Amino acid sequence: MGFTDDFTNCITLKGLSPALAEQLPDAKTALKFAAMLISGTTVESALIAIGVGAAAAAEAAAAVSAFAVGVVIGAVVGCAGVAAGGSLGSVLAQLDPSEQSALAGPLATAGLPTSAAA
Fold first, then answer.
1. What is the pLDDT of residues 54-103, one digit of tens each?
2. For residues 18 and 20, what is the distance between their CA atoms, to the nearest angstrom?
3. What angle do CA 20, 14, 70 make, to 5 degrees?
4. Which of 8, 62, 80, 116 has a beta carbon 3.0–4.6 Å from 92's, enabling a disulfide?
């Protein structure tokens, strides 16, 4: 199984829509998305910012509208780390410092590494 399959399975088990997982093809993209949500960006706007088309972003956002953004962030961050084969540190290293900073709190809360060095 690749990242997408593992991530879709993980996010679905956490109660989120597979429609959201389908828009996040790799750990780096998933974590960028989570960082934008943490910064206050809407689900739809964050999806568009990572390159998802407007129609697909609207559909995925509607599919997760019943969930609190915090639940989405927790699932995305947790599943990205698992689906990346435990190489969360290497994925974090690919993000810019503001994205790493935005993810530090949720990663610490989840007991995951909070820096690219971890």
1. 999 998 888 776 566 667 777 777 777 666 666 777 778 888 888 888 88
2. 5
3. 75
4. 116
